[in-house]
Design a protein that fits this description.
This protein has 135 residues and is of the alpha+beta class. It is built from three helices and eight strands. The chain has a single domain, classed as Ferric Hydroxamate Uptake Protein, Chain A, domain 1, CATH 2.170.130. The structure holds cobalamin.
């Protein structure tokens, strides 16, 4: 008897306004891959992170579902994953190139997050810009 009551309570919680934010697990984002070093076409992809999920989760999900998006990263012992390559193009210390992480929010402001792909938590409808750049 207790189990159906618990199930009904859970269902009710899901239907209450305000509560679903914690349950509805999809925060949609776009990923724009662009190259400021050598001219090449931009590519835009759609994916999502779970509620308060980190960017790399959405990137992995995209990689698993779309053969045209690939990335690699190295693990830094202090700062976590460092984005090494996107779609086969790798950053190169000798050429001083790297994949810069930028975020354009739905209100059109663009920021350069002060954390990497393993720490950044996207907001709904963010456009994550992976920009091949020089430093
Ligand atoms: C130089 C530098 C870079 C260079 C590193 C290459 C080079 N050969 O110089 C470049 C320009 C590539 C870079 C990029 C980024 N950086 Co940087 N970088 C630094 C800086 C100023 C010095 C690092 C250093 O040389 N330490 C001395 C050496 C001897 O130690 P090291 O452990 O070998 O250093 C390596 C790591 O620091 C690594 N690294 C550098 N930046 C980052 C960022 C992340 C997320 C990771 C995992 C590793 C990493 O590269 C260094 C050289 O191999 C630090 C700030 C500071 N004063 O420490 C920020 C710093 C480490 N970077 C930071 C950030 C946020 C980034 C970016 C995410 C910025 C962006 N939005 O694009 C990107 C990384 C994107 C990606 N591809 O994943 C943050 C990391 C904070 C955090 N908790 O995640 C720091 C602390 C600056 C800050 N904003 O406070 N960075």
């Amino acid at each position: 008897m207790k189990i159906p009551i618990l199930l009904s309570a859970a269902l009710l919680l899901l239907l209450l306004p305000g509560v679903p934010a914690a349950f509805s697990s999809q925060t949609p984002i776009q990923i724009l891959v662009t190259n400021s070093v050598t001219p090449s076409p931009d590519r835009t992809y759609s994916t999502y992170v779970v509620y308060r999920g980190i960017l790399i989760g959405g990137m992995r999900r995209l990689q698993d579902s779309n053969t045209y998006f690939k990335f690699t990263y190295t693990e830094d012992q202090n700062y976590g994953p460092f984005l090494q390559s996107v779609n086969g193009l790798a950053g190169c210390p000798e050429r001083r190139t790297y994949w810069q992480l930028l975020v354009q929010s739905s209100n059109d402001t663009t920021i350069r997050p002060n954390v990497g792909i393993g720490c950044y938590i996207p907001n709904a409808n963010d456009t994550i810009i992976l920009k091949y750049s020089t430093y």
